[in-house]
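The pair is quoted verbatim below.
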Amino acid sequence: MGGGNTAILILLASFFAMILLRFPIAYAVALSSVLCLLYQGLPLAAICQQMVKGISSFSLMAVPFFIVMGCLMGSGGISEKLIALADACVGWMRGGMAMVNIVASYFFGGISGSAAADTASIGSILIPMMVEQGYDDDFSTAVTITSSCEGLLVPPSHNMVIYATTAGGVSVGSLFLAGYIPGALLAVSLMIGSYIISVKRNYPKGDPFSISNLLKQLSVSFWALAAVLIVVVGVVGGVFTATESAAIAVIYSLVVSVFIYRGLDWKGVWRVMGECVDTLSIVLILIATSSIFGYCLTRLHVPVMAAGAITGFTNNPIILALLLNLILLILGCIMDMAPIILIATPILLPIATSIGLDPVQFGIMVVLNCGIGLLTPPVGAVLFIGSAVSKVPMERVVKATLPFYLCMVITLLLITFIPAISLWLPQVLG
C-alpha cells in the first residue's frame, strides 16, 4: 500500500472510528486531520492556516447574521401568530391540526432557517394542542419533526449559504429561490400522508374556512413574513449581497420582536444573544475544522479517486443520481448537516455535474438528504429534540415517522429527476 493510500486510510478510518465512538463531530474531523498530517510529515502550522482560511470568507458572515435573525424572531412571540395564520389557511381539513403544523413549519422555516428551532418552538406549542384534541402523541411528534425540514429548503437557510461557499461560484440568491417550490412540494407530500392517516384514524376537523379570519391573521403575521421578503427580494434584486441582507434582517427582526410584537424585552434580547453565541460557536468550529479535513482530502486527491470509483461503477446517469442520494442519506445517519455539506460537496458535486445535474439543483438535493438524516438515528438531532419536547420514547417516534419518511423520499426523487422543480423559479427571475 502506497504512502498516499495509507494516509487516506488513516484519515477516513480514524474519522469514522471516532464517529462510532460518539466523539463530537468537530473533534473527530480535527483529530483525524492531525493524524493524517503527522503521518505525511507536514508541519502542524498548516492546521491553523487552513482553519483561518476556512472561516475567512465574506459570504460566510451571512451565516451568523441569519442565525441571530432566526433566534430573535423565534423568541419574539411570532410562533403563535404563524400558527394562527396556518390554522386560518388549512385548519378546516380532516386532521386539521396536522395540516396546521405542516403549513406553520413552512412559514416559520422561512424565518428561522433551522429544523431544530422549528421543532423546539412550534412543537412545544402544537404537540400538546394536538394531543389534547385527540391526536396520538407519536403521530403529532412525527408530523412536527418531518415538517421542520421544510425550513432547511425555504430561505433564508444558512445551510444554503454554507453550500454556496463550499461549492464555489453558486449564487446564494439562486439557491434561495430554488428552495421555495421544493419546500412547498415537501409540505404537500407530508399533508397528503397526514390526510390519509387522519382519515384512517378519524382525527378531527377544525373550524370552517373563513376568508375574513384569513385576512385578519395575514395582517397580524405580515411583519414576520416581511423579514423573508427583505432577504430574498434584496438578494435576488441585486440591492445588496446575502451578507448585507442578513445584517439588515437582524436589525429588522430586533425592531419587530421588541417594538411591534413585544415578545422580547432588552433583557430577553441579551439572553437570545447568549444562545446565538452557543450555536454560532458550534457552526464556525465545524466550518474551520472541516476546512482542514477538506485540505487533506484535496491533497490526497480523494475527490478525483472517489469520482473515478463511482463513475467506474456505472455510466448510467439515473443509477449515479440514485447512488449520490444513497451516499448522502447514509452520511446523514451518522453525521450532522454542516459537516456533510462541507466534506461531501467537493467530492460529490463534480460527479453530479458530470451527469447533468445543475449545481443549484444538487444543492437542494444535498440539503433535503441532510434534512432526512436529521430525523434518523443514531445522530438525528431533530429526532432527539422532538422526542424530548413531546416526552415520547424515540423508538415510538421513529415507528410513527415511517410513513413520512416515504413522503420525503418521494419528494427527494422528484427533485432529483425533475430539474424544473428546483430551477424554474431561478430561471424565471433571472
In short: Residues 266-299 form the longest helix (34 residues). The two ends are 51 Å apart (CA to CA). Residues 352 and 362 are 7 Å apart (CA to CA).
